[in-house]
Design a protein that fits this description.
Vanillyl-alcohol Oxidase, Chain A, domain 3; five-stranded antiparallel sheet; binds flavin-adenine dinucleotide; eight-stranded antiparallel sheet; 502 residues; Uridine Diphospho-n-acetylenolpyruvylglucosamine Reductase, domain 2; binds 2-acetamido-2-deoxy-beta-D-glucopyranose; Uridine Diphospho-n-acetylenolpyruvylglucosamine Reductase, domain 3; 34% helix; FAD-linked_Oxidoreductase; 21% strand; disordered N terminus; 17 helices; 19 strands; oxidoreductase activity; alpha+beta
Length: 502
């Protein structure tokens, strides 16, 4: 509550001290003329509401000169055409606003294009696809599709935004059955740099379609995704369990069994999360999903379920209500947030690596979390299984920008996440996560006993920090960079809009 009040105050002060460039003011004026009703300026209620809707306070700190909320693809195209006339004005595109990296989905003194008024999905039963609008959160399309008993492959927590997740790759509870969220897209209605509207597909342009799966925001503003649907019926099983610290060994042992076993039981998904909060005992959370009314009684997934928990929300429910419930606690937390990622190989004879990772992160955080100034600070490390079967689906779907291949073996996507209150801690928190990345990089050859040839460990853009060179870790980086340049010769996206770059 305290932080929320402080933010409103900061928004008002920001407005009074407005230092928007003449160019930005001109662009905003032209947008307002062309799209009356859709533009909001500093001090207006709509403006403040939109800024407060960013998940992380690090992004709420940025104050655009104005924002435009298009309702249609035509409105987006018109916005792009006007932005083209003002080459000095920076801009940002916002879907759900969950990217915690400043400068990605918001912009200081520029133009914010929020897709908040374009959301939801419609189902095409004959084709088994859904037409998914680009704005809002996964709860929106999943809620619209629930009655039909189908889902699209998106976030595991319903609150997370649609476009940022699916454009950067996106891992879902259904990924072991379908590939990444991006792999299930068959068409992207996109506004290109010159304001033209195109529909990209494997038929129209296979090279570009592959690039659209995992390149982020560098090829245009997507205004509609045509996504394959997955029959989920009305009953799946899942929820969250919380564990005391003394179960960590059992949990890591179960995780080690689970990663390769997921290839044989793709209906199962987990997010093991190791949480360290200021002033409290460490906690371990696991989000569970099983694509059936009941979980299996034996196998690697069942091994997890035998471990005694201290809190348990798992039950049989619809896919949409599971995602809704999973997101409830992760909604707006009124905190500063950071992500950083690293991909590690699954090493069959290194079952100790998870515990080493956990202990290392805790030791890096120790001094920080001990301070009495940081009572609300907390950090977590997620161990996200990336079994080779996901890459197999990626390849079958036409391939993606990440360039993953089933022969690359099983992997885990490690994500460090922190939330904290003080802006003066921003740098320190980011440095601690960086230290973790440097340590992980050095540890991999140790765990694999020097066998690093043939390891392919691309970074997962969704969980990355803004300074991580994600695309540089992609197998086909050079070709994708050339394709981006060819589609965006003036640098409309690469030099003026936020997000990970080629
Ligand atoms: C609570 C929570 C849960 C999460 N769960 C998952 C999960 O289960 N799986 C997973 O893979 N990731 C997950 N993430 C990470 C998530 O995928 C990223 O944070 C992602 O950026 C969020 O998407 P968004 O739409 O909210 O992004 P935004 O912050 O709105 O945008 C992110 C980037 O995409 C660009 N962009 C947005 N819309 C468009 C568009 N239509 N066209 C072109 N560019 C666009 C923006 O400009 C920005 O650069 C989670 C994050 C949070 C905070
Ligand atoms: C990112 O990595 C690629 C591949 O290694 C490299 O060519 C490129 O210069 C890097 N980009 C930045 C900004 O460091």
């Amino acid at each position: 509550m305290l932080f929320r009040t402080a933010t409103v105050f900061a928004a008002v002060v920001g407005a009074i001290q407005c230092t928007d460039s003449k160019e930005a003011q001109k662009a905003c004026g032209e947008l307002e003329e062309a799209l009356p009703e859709l533009v909001a300026h500093r001090l207006q209620l709509d403006y403040t509401g939109e800024i407060l809707d960013f998940w992380s306070l690090t992004v709420q700190d940025e104050k655009p000169a104005c924002l435009v909320r298009p309702k249609t693809t035509q409105d987006v195209a018109e916005t792009v055409k006007i932005l083209n006339k003002h080459p000095k004005v920076q801009f940002a595109v916002k879907s759900g606003g969950h990217d915690p990296n400043p400068g990605h989905a918001n912009v200081d003194g520029g133009v914010l294009v929020s897709l908040n008024d374009m959301k939801g999905a419609t189902f095409n039963k004959e084709e088994s696809v859904a037409y998914v609008k680009p704005g809002g959160e996964w709860n929106d399309p999943l809620g619209d599709l629930a009655d039909a008993g189908v889902a699209v492959v998106g976030g595991r927590l319903g609150v997370v935004g649609v476009s940022g997740l699916v454009l950067q790759g996106g891992i879902s509870f259904l990924s072991a059955q379908t590939g990444f969220a991006a792999d299930t897209v068959v068409e992207w209605e996109t506004v290109q740099a010159d304001g033209s509207i195109v529909t990209i597909s494997d038929e129209s342009d296979p090279e570009l379609a592959t690039a659209m799966r995992g390149s982020g925001s560098q090829f245009g503003i997507v205004t509609q995704f045509t996504m394959k649907t997955v029959p989920v019926g009305q009953e799946v099983w899942g929820g969250m369990r919380m564990y005391a610290a003394d179960q960590v060994d059992a949990l890591f042992s179960a995780l080690h069994d689970f990663v390769p076993a997921n290839n044989e039981d793709p209906k199962a998904a987990i997010i093991p999360t190791d949480l360290t909060a200021a002033g409290s005992l460490p906690l371990f959370l696991v989000f569970y999903f099983y694509h059936d009314a009941e979980p299996p009684m034996e196998g690697a997934f069942a091994k997890f379920l035998e471990i005694p928990s201290t809190l348990d929300t798992t039950k049989t429910q619809s896919y949409a209500s599971l995602l809704q419930a999973n997101g409830a606690s992760a909604g707006l937390q009124s905190a500063r947030q950071s992500f950083r990622t690293f991909t590690v190989p699954y090493v069959a004879d290194a079952p100790h690596m998870y515990n080493e990772i956990s202990l290392k992160f805790k030791s890096i955080l120790d001094d920080f979390l001990k301070s009495p100034l940081r009572l609300t600070a907390q950090c977590a490390i997620a161990f996200q299984p990336f079994p080779s079967i996901i890459a197999k689906h990626s390849q079958e779907a036409g391939g993606n920008a990440m360039g993953v291949h089933p022969d690359d073996g099983d992997r885990l996507i490690i994500e460090t996440q922190c939330s904290w209150a003080l802006p003066s801690d921003d740098e320190l928190v980011r440095e601690m996560s960086k230290e973790m990345e440097v340590w992980l990089k050095a540890k991999v050859p140790e765990w694999t006993k020097g066998q690093v040839d043939g390891l392919y460990l691309p970074y997962f853009m969704n969980d990355a920090a803004g300074d991580q060179n994600v695309t540089g870790t992609y197998r086909d980086y050079a070709a994708l960079k050339a394709l981006q340049k060819q589609n965006d010769p003036e640098g409309f996206w690469s030099a003026r809009a936020g997000g990970h770059k080629y």
